[in-house]
Specification:
The protein is an all-alpha fold. It has helices at 2-23, 26-43, 47-69.
Length: 70
């Protein structure tokens, strides 16, 4: 849950950087946007993580079905 909040916060601050670019100062806005968009992109799950999580969920579900059948 904390990771999801941090993920959303990075995206929100990156958008705030775009607002700063248009309304306040170009260099400050660009630096804020660049920093937080990189942090946001680094937090995106990789294909391997998603695949591993799906495999774990499938295994757990199969074990649950097997236990119920006995």
């Amino acid at each position: 849950m904390i990771r999801a909040i941090y993920f959303a916060l990075c995206f929100g601050i990156a958008l705030f950087g775009l607002f700063v670019i248009t309304q306040i100062n170009l260099t400050i806005g660009l630096s804020v946007f660049a920093l937080f968009i990189v942090k946001f992109l680094l937090m995106l799950p990789t294909y391997q993580e998603v695949k591993w999580n799906l495999n774990q969920m499938i295994k757990l579900k199969l074990m649950e079905i097997i236990k119920q059948s006995f």
